[in-house]
Amino acid sequence: MERGQGKVPVADPTRLSKAAKDLFEAAVKADPNLGKYGTAFAFEVFAPIGALPIRNYATNIFPGWEKFKGNICAATLRSSQILAGPVAWATAVSWK
Questions:
Q1: Domain parsing of the chain, residue ranges
Q2: Angle at 72 between CA 92 and CA 29, to 5 degrees
Q3: 27: which residues sit within 8 A by CB, 6+ positions away?
Q4: How far apart are alpha carbons 80 and 31 in whole angstroms?
């Protein structure tokens, strides 16, 4: 089996799906930026206090972190048509 292709058995898929949906809705309600910008909004919170996990926490210095703020990432991805919907899942992108 190829890496990442395995299946995890789920005892109650309907219940799991509802729990995931409820958790997501609760997270967005607790912080509207999560649904708007995904976790990229955290740059504004963590960068100024040196809490970004740069190079697996080998350093906390990240010059130019301002370019990765949630609103900027979302606008850039949407304008380049990489992302059409809400930013709520991981997407690999290259940034110039």
A1: 32-96
A2: 85
A3: 34, 35
A4: 26
